[in-house]
Design a protein that fits this description.
By secondary structure, this protein is α/β, with parallel strands linked by helices. The chain has helices spanning about 1-20, 35-45, 90-95, 115-125, 155, 180-190, 210-215, 260-270, 285-300; strands at about 30, 50-55, 70, 80-85, 95-100, 105-115, 135-145, 165-170, 195, 225, 250-255, 280. Helix 3 (about 90-95) runs parallel beside helix 4 (about 115-125) and helix 6 runs parallel beside helix 7.
């Protein structure tokens, strides 16, 4: 029965690819993975602005190395790949394609090897979108990393000078941010509004002081999700704060199961981030901090800078 289904799926995909190649004025296309001939056809459509590929079947068209040529999608502004079971073909296409008008890139995969992940980062950074890309969202349920091996996406993405949103979501501890990385990110992308670099299991070299120093470089940042190391609180709760009044959504992940001085931490967050009402987390270790933070907000609500 599996062979019958596999053949039917292959026939459906072949028929769909044939029909797409008859279309010459496509503007938006949402479809399963297509064959290489169809990719080449799409690259010649000046009307195509949005392309959304959704891998609905396990059996997808394979690419023959002898058929691969460099492609240029001149006017595509939004490119999405969803529910990918096998990302190798898509990465190959990215490695041989240019998207000089691309503004949004969304990539969702069930699994990536560490080599595939780095290949994806490298291909994206070389697709001629350095002056246009504003949004990168990459989500992967599992990355095949060795113990104490980390991904290094940030150096690849520093070329995107117009970046407004960067969300890197992995189910494993794949990225190790530290103060230097965060400072480099914020100084390179001063207009960024959404930054997500962590997950529940991520270790971190970002300290509270490093976080506040980096935030001062991004006055428009609205949403932040990163792992943080608060084993030592390196900010004086009585020091004069430099307030960041645009940040509204803050999610911090920490290895510490319990936060030692929750009240002090709440005082610091309340003073430095006056528009953050609670710290989100995938665990419950920030509950006590949020309890103190709510009390502080209730006491100072009429005087919060920038509150609406």
């Amino acid at each position: 029965m599996r062979d019958v289904d596999s053949t039917a799926n292959a026939n459906e995909l072949s028929l769909l690819s044939d029909r797409i190649r008859w279309c010459t004025r496509l503007v938006t296309l949402h479809c399963p993975i297509i064959d290489w001939a169809t990719w080449k056809h799409l690259s010649h459509l000046p009307t195509l602005l949005e392309l959304d590929i959704d891998q609905r079947y396990d059996d997808t068209p394979s690419l023959s190395n002898q058929d691969i040529v460099n492609l240029s999608f001149l006017n595509i502004t939004s490119l999405s790949f969803r529910q990918l079971c096998d990302s190798a073909n898509i990465i190959t296409i990215m490695q041989h394609s240019q998207f000089p008008s691309l503004k949004e890139f969304d990539f969702e995969a069930n699994y990536l090897s560490s080599e595939e992940t780095e290949q994806l980062f490298h291909a994206l950074s070389h697709c001629k979108a350095c002056q246009t890309l504003e949004e990168i969202i990459i989500c992967c349920l599992h990355v095949g990393l060795e113990y104490h091996e980390f991904l290094t996406p940030i150096p690849h993405f520093l070329c995107f000078t117009q970046l407004r949103t960067l969300q890197l979501m992995f189910s494993d501890s794949c990225i190790y941010p530290d103060n230097n990385m965060l400072l480099q990110v914020m100084s390179t992308w001063p207009h960024i509004r959404t930054l997500s670099l962590g997950d529940r299991l991520s270790s971190s070299g970002v300290s509270l002081h490093g976080l506040f120093t980096a935030l001062s470089l991004c006055p428009q940042l609205h949403t932040l999700h990163i792992p943080i190391n608060i084993a030592t609180i390196d900010v004086d709760p009585d020091a004069e704060p430099i307030q960041h009044t645009s940040l509204r959504s803050l999610a911090l992940e920490t290895f510490e199961s319990e936060i030692a001085d929750a009240e002090t931490l709440a005082r610091i967050i309340s003073a430095w981030l006056p528009c953050v009402d609670l710290v989100k987390s995938m665990g419950s270790n920030w509950d006590e901090v949020n309890m103190h933070l709510r009390s502080l907000r209730a006491a100072t609500a009429p005087y919060v800078v920038g509150a609406s």
